[in-house]
Design a protein that fits this description.
The chain is an alpha+beta fold. Helices cover 15% and strands 33% of the residues. The protein is built from 5 helices and 26 strands. The protein has helices spanning 111-120, 158-181, 271-279, 291-298, 325-335, and strands at 26-30, 41-45, 47-51, 54-55, 59-64, 74-82, 88-99, 102-103, 125-130, 134-135, 142-150, 191-201, 218-222, 227-228, 236-241, 252-257, 265-266, 286-287, 306-308, 315-316, 339-343, 356-361, 366-372, 377-384, 389-390, 394-398. The protein has a 6-stranded antiparallel sheet with strand order 14-13-15-16-26-18, with no helix packed on it. The chain has a 6-stranded antiparallel sheet with strand order 20-19-21-24-23-22, covered by helices on one side. A 5-stranded antiparallel sheet has the order 4-3-6-11-9. The termini are far apart. Residues 1-41 have low confidence and may be disordered.
Length: 403
């Protein structure tokens, strides 16, 4: 069957428009310590969205007309700067989503549900990510919004590829016919998604993201004294926050010790013993490193974090936090004897030249492990349980000890 390609045309990132809610200059008063009863302090509110150093709007429109198996991945990035005087929280909503004649958006559907469908339920994949859920009032603090579009050449389902090629062809023919019959009619593109980026004043409450503990943040911690430290030593270790979105109301912070440290090595059957040997010398609460810890982090990269399967095209990992999607995708990786590949540059704190066991079984003979592949990439894969790999505990540190 001849599959008609849909022409890709991403009409996105309109030039900046005035919006008192989320973009350009706005002002508000806040209560502060005043010298007289009539004084108030005034802070500027200025969040800037930009792409390729050009200001853009907070509305992203993806209008796709030519998506096909084996297409080159398309990535759009928006940089978010806080040029004002107060911290801002960030989020986004999918205002509308249409695939051919199917409207995905309704009163019952959430942005998370639509994202999950776009990421996994079609032969093509549309993935969305926000690097941080906030931007502090600091000229050096930024966040990045990213959208990627891809269609693997060989996705293990040629019938589905052909079916969608036929459906897309028929849809385009119908739209062209409508335009020919009525020149004033604007033919629809095959896919259209409208996303709104939102920046609002950061309000400190228990449900707010804790801006002190963004994932990947470096913290020097003394595992003997159970407190922060300033000079590296045998007990003062480099550690990194691995909570995906630590909240203000969370009591603890999860820290991963530097993987270039020296830890016990052995086979997977001795995992618990090795972990206990390390933890018994540390005066801090610890637990095993889980596959969920790592996938929750690397899946945020919608450009360079892939599921790799033998004989099939690589595919972006995508969203994993809706319903049972995590288990479904993990089982797909195991059943296809695959592994996860991610960028060393994006996640430098997960890079190690030594293999590290993760406390999850891959199958009867293998356990999950982490290791550096080359200068550019690392992988999470199945390592023989009889192999010699290192073991590292994860720290669960009370925030009171980090103040």
């Amino acid at each position: 069957m001849r599959v008609k390609h849909l022409k890709l045309n991403i009409l996105s990132l309109f030039f900046v428009a005035v919006s008192l809610l989320s973009i350009t200059l706005a002002w508000f008063a806040y209560s502060g310590v005043a010298r007289t009863a009539t004084e108030v302090n005034v802070k500027a509110w200025y969040i800037e969205f930009s792409k390729d150093n050009k200001k853009v709007s907070n509305e992203i429109v993806l209008s796709l007309n030519d998506v096909y198996p084996g297409m080159e991945q398309v990535v759009e990035k928006v940089k978010i700067d806080n040029l004002g005087d107060t911290d801002a929280k960030l989020n986004y909503t999918i205002d509308s989503a249409r695939i051919l004649d199917e409207d995905l958006k309704s009163e019952e559907t959430s942005t998370l549900e639509i994202e999950d469908k776009l990421s996994h339920d079609y032969p093509f994949h549309i993935n969305i990510s926000l690097s941080k859920d906030f931007v502090k009032a600091d000229e050096n603090d930024i966040s990045e919004f990213e959208v990627s579009v891809s269609w693997p050449l060989d996705s293990k389902n040629n019938e589905l590829d052909s079916e969608w090629g036929k459906k897309a062809y028929e849809f385009q023919e119908q739209e062209n016919a409508k335009h020919e019959n009525d020149p004033s009619y604007q033919a629809k593109t095959s896919l259209k998604i409208v996303i709104s980026l939102k920046a609002e004043q950061y309000v400190l409450n228990n449900d707010a993201v804790d801006t002190n503990y963004n994932f990947g943040k470096l913290i020097l911690y003394d595992v003997s004294k159970n407190e922060t430290c300033t000079t590296l030593s045998s007990t003062c270790l480099k550690t990194y926050v691995i909570d995906k979105a630590n909240k203000v109301g969370d009591v603890n912070v999860t820290l991963l010790p530097d993987l270039y440290g020296t830890y016990q090595t052995g086979t997977y059957d001795n995992y618990d013993t090795l972990l206990n040997e390390i933890s018994s010398t540390w005066n801090v609460k610890t637990r095993a490193l889980k596959i969920e810890d790592l996938l929750n982090i690397i899946s945020k990269d919608v450009e360079s974090s892939y599921l790799v399967r033998e004989g099939l095209s690589d595919v972006i990992i995508g969203k994993l936090d809706y319903n049972d999607r995590f288990e479904t995708e993990l089982n797909e990786m195991i059943s296809s004897n695959g592994y996860y590949r991610f960028s060393n540059q994006t996640f430098p704190y997960l890079v190690t030249s030594k293999c590290y066991f993760i406390n999850n079984e891959y199958n009867n003979d293998k356990a999950f492990a982490l290791v550096k592949m080359d200068d550019n990439n690392s992988k999470i894969y199945g390592e023989l349980k009889t192999s010699e790999c290192s073991v590292v505990p994860v720290l669960e540190v009370a925030k009171a000890n980090l103040d």
